[in-house]
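Standup notes, structure subgroup. Blocker cleared on the magnesium ion input:
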Amino acid sequence: MTVTSIEPKDNKEKWLARLRRFFRWLTSPHVVLSIIMVAVMFYLVIIPLYRMVVTTITVADVDLRAIRGAEVGDFTWYHWVRMLTGKIGKLMTYQPAMHSIVVALGATFLALAVGGLMAWLVCRTDIPGRDTIHMLAQVPYIMPSWTIAMAWLVLFKNQKSGGTMGLLEFITGAPTPDWLAYGPIPIIVSSGLHYYTFFFLFIAAALLSIDSSLEEAGELAGAGRWRIMRKITFPLVIPAIASGFIMTFSKAMGTFGGPNVLGVPVRYYTLSTMLRSNSSIGNYGDAFVTAIVLILFAMVTVMLNQKIVGTRKSYETIGGRGFMSKKTKLRNFKPIIVAIVVIFQFIIAVLPLVLLVYSTFMLRDGKWTLDNFTLAHWIGKGDLSINSGEPGILLNHKVWLGAWNSVRLSILTALFTALFGVVLGYAIVKGRGTWLSKIVEQMSFIPYVIPGIAFGAVYIAMFTKPVGPIPALYGTFALLVVVSVAKHLPFSARSGVSAMMQVSKELEEAAMLAGASPWRRFARIVFPLTSTGFVSGFLLTFITTMRELSLIILLVTPTTAVLASMTMRYIENGNDQQANAVIILLIVLVLIGNFIISRFRGGSLKKGLGL
Amino acid sequence: MDTPIVINNLTKKFGDVIAVNNVSLRIEPHTFLTLLGPSGCGKTTLLRCISGLEDPDEGEIYIGDTLIYSHAKGISVPPGQRELGMVFQNYALWPHMTVYKNMTFALEIQKLPKAEMDKRVKESLEEVKMSGYENRYPREMSGGQQQRIALARMLAYRPKVFLMDEPLSNLDARLRMDMRTELKRLHHISDATTVYVTHDQLEAMTMSTNIAVMKEGVIQQMDTPDMIYHYPANLFVADFIGNPKINLLKGWVSSEDVVDLGKFNIPAYTHRKTGDVVAAFRPEDITIHTEPVEGGVEFSAYSVQPSGADTTIIAHKGDTEIIVKEMGVSKIAMDQKIWLTFNKEAINLYDKATEKLITGS
Ligand SMILES: Nc1ncnc2c1ncn2[C@@H]1O[C@H](COP(=O)(O)OP(=O)(O)O)[C@@H](O)[C@H]1O
Ligand SMILES: [Mg+2]
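Run returned:
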């Protein structure tokens, strides 16, 4: 029993005991790891965001002419006023915001419709070739998001805005109307067809995980098919739809490739392309206002989504245990539906690649006859009459440098993401229920709500000057790694937590009782038991980083350019065919990487997505 | 090994839940102590506090002479240095290691020479009758075999104290019986102080030298199985122990050594002159007569349930129900009139207000 005593000796002992207890807490592995991760994430996420906000309210060199009498470093509302009011506000913020919303909503709903329908066909009908459909459905995910956009141009561009003819104009002889060649509709269709994979995978997993006995129970109770759909199936699939929705919407909001390829030529700007155009002329104050607007939009989406679906549920996906379920018979419609699905998947997965490859074999762009065949874009020596004298991409050392950058960026990002996954998973799961664990989990979630291009912008603000122990990273390759790893933090945490949950805590405790040090427990018990999960995570990170554009477009320099950013450069310089060749090379590298990695331990894309 | 365990005023909370509430107990060397109680009463938590896997909020723990935990002094010896072995409910065998690797994991940390490790693995496997399984992986064995390996892993480590958390709960009835026998022999041979957790009273009664019955984080009674069975310290323990259940009837002391149960009286050592009590007597402490006898109370046989070795008879008198156990196969038919006599020595009285056993002292 505690005896209250005023003797100093007792007091000293009390403090000593308190100190010992604190020290014990501080040195337990999950606390150490949590504290390290909080510090890392503070550097990688919080400080950059703060610096970005500060930049928008601080006078910079470039602002001196516009703001009379101000000095560099002064406080100012100049950028906010300029970007949010008057004619400039309309042109640079409101109109692009409108465009972004239209494009993102359109793409999301298109993806939902397509993905949901396909998932239903695969999971709930007697359609043949289920596995093939499943596999083809994942193809868009492997391709860069603007692949379809580039193929779109090959097909639909017109001489008026694109300089050369697309296939359609070549065949019909009539110029393709602008609305079909450029602007919102092409952007919506091309990104919707890219993003439907999310919905397909999420909804398919949800449908498979619904125990059909629930539905049968409904049927026995005399409920009609539609009523069962509405009352039982639908509510169970809602979380999957919601996770697909926020994932797609926030990705589509922040996507850069499609709008840049299909929107900018006709001055159809979205927030992301506007952000790029402002930051490329060094007007960071303005650019960051746009970035913040973009971030706010994404945050509102996530919040609305959580309000509607309930916290957490929305981005937790449902594990796919295979329950037997009744299949709807397609009967006479079967051949028609199969034909539609086959054609559709062909259009999404195969046609774009065919068009892109074909276009790289044309000497003169837009001349679709065989006598125009050439290999110059692949292995040409660099003739001044084509491609401004650039050699074919396979002989171009700039392209190979870009390929090397892409590969090492992807591998490094995947490695660090897996590493952080282990650490975050351990810290969060072992600390479950403590405030520290909650802080770690919530901090790691922040990058999720920041659209890719805005996240890139955040890093311009951060690393143009040294911050603490980190040197000025702007323009370095290391910065690309840092930004990619930081953007993957939510994924790290989620895959880490799910991998860690697979390992019952007694397995580590048994090792603890055996006297194993934290490091030994990790190396001998925790890591071997979770590594399968991390192989899948590695694969997924590798692929997403290979074809990541929005995130790094603001940060690359000629020496750090990756294949993804090079496609944009070539397109912007009017060398569409070079661009197409580069994107083909990129896809080939992704496929090779995918193949090599999936050899190990059966890692797979689906596992990586946590399904 | 002479290793007592002493626990003083131990408390462990999870948020608002007090899982272990101010527990003090002394576990003598060589004891097989069972923590017994319904699910959620804090048995596992108490065991985990001893092992160091859980950090208590108050109190202190000694193993042998060593203070391994003290809140007031801020001391907590890491689990690995407490020299105790534990068998988990789900066995916690490392699935990616063979039996041999599982068993030598701890020994490698102690840097034992290879020959010594081999010897210990061999001996321990022999003790659990699993020789020759060194190279199996856990998933290649049945639940019962995994259980034995988990035990062997602990034995190979030669801890001072054995801790076991419901090790038999995942086995089927038959295997459970076999393992009870094995565990008891194991304790007999090794003579190590053992703390065993279960919610199964049969396990507790058959294996333990001592039982501590817990409820809501508090130890209700700690005693030998015999004392726990025959002199439950309070109504909770009386009700929890015994199968079929003990008879608990409300009544009052009408005169010395007579308890009035409303419809009839029974003899008992009342130790007091008046007051409301609850009378408790076990089904086997009642004798059934088919004819009226002196002191017999008339009942009717509401239900007769033979189980081979004995027969359980549910006897009714109005709305009073008494469960009686008779050895062998009973000749009594349902709805037959019967007369019950009560063994005065075997009747315990509990104070109605405090629910505590009324004793002479
Ligand atoms: N890690 C934990 N977090 C929160 N509550 C817990 C935890 N472990 C146990 N409890 C609670 O403490 C009480 C005792 O649990 P436990 O010791 O596991 O009981 P038993 O082993 O007797 O079934 C229960 O109410 C349980 O819900
Ligand atoms: Mg328990």
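Discussed briefly. Residues B 14, 17, 19, 37, 39-45 surround adenosine-5'-diphosphate (ligand 1) (CB under 6 Å).
Next: hand off to the docking folks.
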